[in-house]
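Project standup — Tuesday

K.O.: blocked on the structure for the chain from last sprint. Re-posting the sequence here as requested.
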Amino acid sequence: MTTHERSYDVIVAGLGAMGSATVYALARAQGPARRVLGIDRFSPPHGLGSSHGRTRIIREAYFEHPAYVPIVRRAFDLWRELEQAAGRPLYTRTRGITLGAEDGMLVCGARASAEQFGVPHRVLASAEVTREFPGLQPLDGMVGVVEERAGVLFPEHCIAAMLGLAEQAGAELRRDETVVAWEAKGDGVTVKTTAGEYRAARLVIAAGAWMPRLVPELAGTLAVERQRNQWFVPDSHSEDYSAARCPVTLWEYAPHRTFYMLPDFGDGVKAGVHHEGQSVDPDHVNRQTSPEEVARVVDFLRCFMPNAAWQLRESQVCLYTNTPDLHFIMDRHPAHADSVVVVSACSGHGFKFATAIGEIVADLVAERTPRFDLSMFRMSRFQTKGVRVV
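H.V.: unblocked you, prediction finished:
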């Protein structure tokens, strides 16, 4: 059978965090076996999209909105199951702390989520934070919300595990092949790529930064942002920044402005400014970090972690695909609800949810009612390009 004649039950376009998790969830679903095809323009796991960076934060006292808490709890369970199935570590608990003004966005949001869902947490004054975590020195007047289950996921290992297990379960993957167009009509969807043409009953579009090209209705809504990550080596007190002693941290350094830090797993302390990057074309991204960009992060390290002088070890660039409200999209396509599901635009905070989102998308594909209320993630909340999605 030639490439253009191949037919599947489900095609997944994009194999970053959400696409990989979807392929994995579909391939291992109970019931009749599905013919599942996953396609990616690169060879995942890779460093050209949004799903890399060695470590990613997973946390439960979710300042962005309490509605995320039940989803991330399910994700914790599924990451544990994936870890057991893969036979390799994918998550490490470090604890987590959200720091800022007591009435600020981060602290208020984290406390609201924790209190609504009974997330175990403690609120520490600035001096108490430093006593418990000597490497951290919040400014006077800051408080910290500590949660015990927070930690890190290892994204490249997570994606490799999901894709490897999906293939073992029968899914077919095509790497280094770009989806250039799709068309839904009749009883299915035709997907055209740089290598051929495929048909399926259902299509899942999880294209990340390339979503505006495959879902034109969102082209005027989504913004692709260049995000910088750096790894720094402390010249002293290195034990205070080790994964065994230092939590993952979020700092609200100014109203609605966030700086983050992840402890040293052997490559140095990972740090960066959350958002505040420039809009970019995902095919033409400056992958170099300027001295000015590095200096800005060093200034934050010296302010909040002044015990060590910080030397840059490495820089990376990744891509955020942002919605205007910074919440996700998980929805059936408004014009093709029977055959196309759109999932992506995770606005820089999605990786931790991937396993749960893969399960949600598998439910949408199978026309089962998802276990979570997805109303805040619908496309209809936006005035999309040329179309009001209702």
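K.O.: great, moving the ticket to review. Residues 61 and 119 are 6 Å apart (CA to CA). Residues 3-50+156-221+325-388 form a domain with the FAD/NAD(P)-binding domain fold (CATH 3.50.50.60).
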